[in-house]
Design brief:
About 25% of the residues lie in helices and about 15% in strands. It is α+β, with helices and mostly antiparallel strands. The strands form 2 sheets. It has a 4-stranded antiparallel beta sheet with strand order 1-2-6-4, with no helix packed on it.
């Protein structure tokens, strides 16, 4: 009765249930707490699902306790209703065959649409179980779930995408390519896949080609990027020196 049908009981107490994201992967030893080892690999559907359900349970308890001592506080029924709504909406928002972290994002985004404080509490709870902002899921088609990277923090999660390099400065032909002596700009998109805003960031451009130069300096200041948002930057004036033609 202590374990139910699972290897460890659903609990936020790590002396009873210490499962974290890494325990979906084959070859990772189970926690050193009382465990009903069923003999199956970690990637077995019920075993991996138990880890995910533990993280969702952690998020549910975060909603139950978020407003304790506040006025008004959630009743048990209110917190249960909110979590139920977030789970259903999250499943609707998620992509087909979602990874663990894509499903986490879908649940948090469902909460963002209703209550930012709920969303932050859930994100922090996921981080307790290793599903933090910078966690990396195993490949979508993985059968053994190896390749997990755990994250126990809730922080900005930036990524940079190159959008283009154009000859919109000094150009002899405006053909979209940087010819020798022409100048232009690099445009990039800075994305933030987190519930926490990205602040105080800088972006430094570099080029593997010696023929590409940044006359005004290669570093720019990135403005604040809101949660689950992006900014596009006309990042830096560039110069193509003789010898290359870039696009």
């Amino acid at each position: 009765s202590y374990f139910g049908i699972r290897r460890e009981p659903y609990s936020t107490d790590f002396t009873k249930n210490a499962l974290t994201f890494k325990h979906v992967a084959d070859g990772v030893a189970l926690p050193a707490v009382p465990t009903l080892d069923n003999g199956g690999p970690n990637s077995e559907v019920h075993n991996a699902g138990e880890v995910w359900a533990t993280a969702v349970f952690q998020a549910y308890v975060a909603l139950l306790t978020r407003t304790q001592g506040a006025t008004p506080a959630y009743t048990f029924a209110e917190a249960r209703r909110r979590m139920s709504d977030y789970v259903v909406a999250g499943m609707k928002l998620s992509v087909a065959d979602a990874t663990f972290t894509e499903m986490r994002d879908a649940l948090v985004m469902a909460a963002v649409a209703n209550d930012d404080a709920d969303a932050l509490a859930m994100a922090q709870a996921f981080a307790v179980r290793g599903f933090g902002s910078c966690a990396i899921s195993p490949p979508r088609d993985s059968v053994d779930f190896t390749g997990v990277t755990e994250s126990f923090d809730v922080k900005a999660n930036p990524s940079v995408r190159l959008l283009g390099l154009v000859d919109d400065g000094h150009s002899c032909d405006l053909d979209g390519y940087l010819d020798s002596g022409e100048t232009g700009h690099v445009t990039v998109r800075v994305e933030n896949a987190s519930i926490v805003a990205l602040t105080g960031a800088t972006l430094t451009m570099s080029a593997s080609l010696a023929s590409l130069d940044f006359p005004g300096g290669a570093t720019v200041t990135v403005p604040t990027v809101a949660p689950f948002s992006f900014v596009e930057l006309l990042a830096r004036h560039v110069l193509a020196v003789p010898g290359e033609r870039l696009g």
